[in-house]
């Protein structure tokens, strides 16, 4: 397979929501509200008693300007999650802090372990499930038949760095898919539904399965049943558990597929690796050269807006950047070519799983979808949007995670919180350095190092 020649020069970065956001009805929170959303009080931290409004406005704009090339706004492109739901309610630090479900699920010294449950083993009685893992693409390629098993040790290492301060361990019981002999209900007999069992120790949960509506996979597993199984598995000493499956998933009968979901109140999540297979990139409409961080390429964003009849809005956003951590991330991926080797494809696939895993675990810590910035906690409506989103936590979401771990769990103060953030950045940068041949990790590593130059000079 020949290497693909890049055609886009990525001459500048888009730092604000796209022109398309205007048509979608999305309104980016003001700099004042974005700063206020990082505090427990819900007030702009730059505000001071007796301060003139003009002084506060100037300080706020200066702060927003310094953060612009670090934490840009969400892109809001056609069919994105925020395009479909532009008025999704924001979750500030204050609203997160006061959320009743979160208050009942705080981290503590006896409950601070995140368990990663490896993809269940397929036992002889359900051998047919092995075929369900192979994507069916129109142009059959060697990569479509590759078994890209998740590297459990690396998922644990990445999650451990991302949620530094928590203990991340492999789930102690090997899970298995086994036959389930219970008869189907009448409605399920006519819909193609069948059952398999998910065995964890002495407990077996019934999992519904069906053919995938788009024909990409031979079978899908029901997400709600998998989450119910995960709830039954949570050890007493665990804060949370994430279940990895290498089968396609669906949520309900109207759903085509689903890649991940969390029951935050129960502190469980499930992630499917199936749709992230690189062999499906063409089917998903993924442009390799415009995955994050190149998703913020200004010409790329503007071309999409023009193609969707938003020309009249072009020019309302004149900002374009060629500096800062996001630019450093872009520079780090310029030389990377579309994956050719098996190791390259495994790395690409792994980066997508890693990003989704920490997103779903964020929900277990009480974080809702983010609407303030481009952020790993953004909601996503499709795979093509997934790969355009960043791996980092924005200032609002980072303030929540840092407070939960450094303050509530470890008893630290504001200084301890800042030290925690720096150490977390260093650990993540070290991890990314081991995967610098993979776009997301190469970009994230460069972003982290540039960020550290500012917060820890």
TrEMBL record:
Superkingdom of this protein's organism: Eukaryota
Glycoprotein found in the keyword field: no
GO BP, one annotated term: proteolysis
Signal peptide: none
Pfam family name, one: Peptidase_M54
Cofactor(s) needed for function: Zn(2+)
Gene Ontology molecular function: any one: metal ion binding
InterPro entries documented for this protein: MetalloPept_cat_dom_sf (IPR024079), Pept_M54_archaemetzincn (IPR012962)
Key words of the record: Hydrolase, Metal-binding, Metalloprotease, Protease, Zinc
Cited PANTHER family: ARCHAEMETZINCIN (PTHR15910), ARCHAEMETZINCIN-2 (PTHR15910:SF1)
Protein name listed in UniProt: Archaemetzincin-2
Organism, scientific name: Daldinia eschscholtzii
């Amino acid at each position: 397979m020949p290497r693909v020649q890049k055609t886009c020069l990525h001459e500048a970065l888009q730092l604000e929501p796209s022109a398309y956001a205007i048509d979608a009805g999305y309104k980016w929170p003001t700099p004042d509200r974005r700063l206020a959303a990082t505090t427990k009080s819900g007030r702009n931290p730059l505000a001071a008693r007796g301060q003139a409004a003009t002084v506060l406005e100037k300080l706020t704009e200066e702060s927003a300007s310094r953060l612009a090339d670090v934490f840009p706004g969400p892109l809001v492109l056609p069919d994105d999650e925020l395009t479909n739901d532009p008025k999704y309610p924001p979750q500030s630090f204050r609203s997160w802090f006061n959320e009743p479900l979160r208050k009942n699920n705080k981290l503590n010294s006896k409950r601070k372990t995140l368990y990663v449950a490896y993809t269940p083993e397929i036992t002889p009685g359900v051998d047919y499930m092995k075929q369900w893992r192979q994507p069916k693409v129109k142009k059959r390629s060697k990569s479509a038949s590759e078994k890209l098993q998740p590297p459990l040790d690396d998922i644990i290492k990445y999650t451990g760095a991302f949620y530094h301060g928590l203990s991340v361990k492999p789930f102690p019981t090997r899970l298995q898919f086994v036959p389930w002999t219970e008869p189907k209900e009448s409605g399920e007999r006519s819909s193609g539904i069948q059952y398999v069992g998910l065995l964890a120790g002495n407990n077996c949960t019934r999992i519904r399965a069906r053919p995938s509506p788009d024909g990409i996979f031979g079978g899908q597993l029901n997400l709600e049943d998998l989450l119910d199984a995960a709830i039954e598995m949570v050890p007493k000493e665990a804060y949370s558990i994430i279940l990895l499956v290498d089968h396609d998933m669906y949520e309900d009968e109207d759903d085509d597929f689903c890649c991940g979901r969390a029951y935050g109140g129960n502190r469980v999540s499930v992630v499917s690796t199936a749709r992230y297979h690189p062999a499906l990139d063409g089917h998903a409409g993924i442009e390799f050269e415009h995955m994050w961080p190149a998703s913020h390429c200004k010409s790329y964003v503007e071309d999409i807006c023009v193609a969707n009849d938003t020309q009249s809005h072009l020019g309302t956003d004149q900002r374009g950047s060629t500096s800062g951590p996001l630019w450093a991330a872009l520079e780090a991926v310029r030389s990377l070519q579309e994956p050719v080797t098996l190791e390259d494809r495994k790395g690409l696939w792994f980066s997508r799983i890693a990003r989704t895993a920490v997103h779903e675990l964020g929900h277990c810590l009480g974080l809702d979808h983010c609407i303030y910035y481009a952020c790993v906690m953004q909601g996503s409506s499709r795979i093509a949007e997934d790969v355009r989103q960043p791996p980092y936590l924005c200032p609002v979401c980072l303030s929540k995670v840092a407070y939960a771990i450094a303050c509530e769990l470890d008893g630290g103060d504001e200084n301890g919180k800042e030290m925690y953030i720096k150490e977390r950045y260093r650990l993540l940068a070290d991890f990314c350095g081991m995967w610098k041949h993979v776009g997301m990790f190469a970009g994230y590593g460069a972003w982290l190092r540039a960020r550290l130059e500012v917060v820890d000079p």
